């Protein structure tokens, strides 16, 4: 799974990753207002963020979550595909 690889190899801080199958737990999807999959919800550190759609691009995922990317190929200052929004659709 790409998301697990991203957090294990790119995130250099403690993290908790819960993967929830919304077909098995529709109650959790409803409680979290998840209307599309895949949806990645970052709760901490603040601000919280949501990424909806393709999670295969490591740099877009890290930028969308406002987390530092470790790749030297990322432009200085990083990028924010969300344009400051709390929700990113890829």
Automatic annotation (TrEMBL):
This is Circadian oscillation regulator KaiB. Residues 65-90 are annotated as: Disordered. PANTHER family: CIRCADIAN CLOCK PROTEIN KAIB2 (PTHR41709:SF2), KAIB-LIKE PROTEIN 1 (PTHR41709). InterPro entries: KaiB-like (IPR039022), KaiB_domain (IPR011649), Thioredoxin-like_sf (IPR036249). Residues 1-67 form the KaiB domain. It comes from Euzebya pacifica. SUPFAM superfamilies: Thioredoxin-like (SSF52833). GO terms for biological process: rhythmic process.
């Amino acid at each position: 799974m790409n998301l697990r690889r991203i957090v294990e190899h790119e995130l250099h801080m403690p993290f908790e990753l819960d993967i929830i199958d919304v077909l098995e737990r529709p109650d959790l999807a409803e409680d979290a207002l998840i209307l599309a999959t895949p949806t990645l919800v970052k709760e901490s550190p603040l601000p919280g963020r949501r990424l909806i759609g393709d999670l295969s691009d490591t740099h877009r995922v890290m930028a969308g979550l406002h987390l530092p990317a470790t790749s030297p190929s990322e432009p200085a200052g990083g990028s924010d595909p969300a344009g400051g929004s709390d929700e990113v659709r890829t």
